Amino acid sequence: MLIHKKMKDLIIIGAGGHGKEIAWLAKRCGRLIRGFLDNTPEKQGSNISGIPVLGMLDQCTRFEDCEFIVAIGSPRARKKIVESFFHKKNLAFATLIDPTAIIGENICIQEGTMICAGSILTIDIQIGSHCIINTNAVLSHGAIIGDYVTVAPNASVSGDVHLESLVEIGANASIKEKTLIQSGAMIGMGSVVTKNVLTNQVLVGNPAKFLKSLY
Questions:
Q1: d(CA 7, CA 27)
Q2: The domain 10-93: what is its CATH number?
Q3: pLDDT means per 10 residues in the chain (215 residues)?
Q4: In the 8-state DSSP scheme, what is residue 31?
Q5: What's the longest Cα–Cα distance across the chain?
C-alpha cells in the first residue's frame, strides 16, 4: 500500500515583494502557508496578500512543525538570515519548484532553493542551497550554481557556466558558455558576459564591463 506523506505547512521569511512572489509560487506548488516572519515592525500583526505576519525572525523556533523558505532577493541578505536565525536550530527548509518549470535529466537541487514559473533547467545541472532561479530563467547543460545565487527573470546561463556562491545575475542578462563568475559578483540587467568575472566585481553592459567592486 502506497502511503503519501503529508507536507508540512510553510513559513515564508520576508514579507516584501519577493515574499509575495514566493507565496504565489508556494500556492502553485500546493503548499499550505502558515504565515510570514519579517523583522519590519510596521508589518507585525498585518496580513500580506491575505497571509498573516506571525512575528519577527527570531521567533522561528515557535514553528518547528513547519518548513521554511527565505524569500529575500539579495544573496548576501539571504545568507545572513540563514546563518543568523537558523544555524544549529535543526529547522527544515522547503524546496519549491513551480509546476510549469521544465526540469531535465540529472538535475541536483539543494534545500531552500526556489525554481520559479517558466524556468528551464536542461541537463546535468547542480544547484546549491537557498538559490532563486526566477521566472523564465534558463540554465543550460553542465551549469554549476553555488549556494545563495540569484538568477533574475529571463536571464540565460549557457552550458558549463559556473556561478559561485552569492552571485547575482540581473534580469535579461546572458552568460557565455564555459564562463566562471566568482563568488559575490553581480551582473547588471541586460548585460552580456563573455569573459570570466572576479570575486565581488560588478559588470554591466554589452559586452559586460567592470563597473566597480562591492568590497
A1: 13
A2: 3.40.50.20
A3: 68 96 97 97 93 96 96 96 87 97 98 98 98 98 98 98 98 98 98 98 97 92
A4: P
A5: 60
* Count of CA atoms in the C-beta half-sphere (13 A) of 164: 14
For 60, the grid coordinates are: 522561528
Q: Where are the domains of the chain?
A: 10-93, 96-204
Are 14 and 72 in contact, with CB atoms under 8 Å apart?
yes
CATH class of 96-204: mainly beta
In single-letter form, the type of residue at position 104 comes to G
Q: Per residue in 79-97, pLDDT tens? A: 999 999 887 788 999 999 9
Question: Full-prediction pTM beyond 0.85?
Answer: yes
* Pairwise CA distance, residues 43 & 45, whole Å: 6
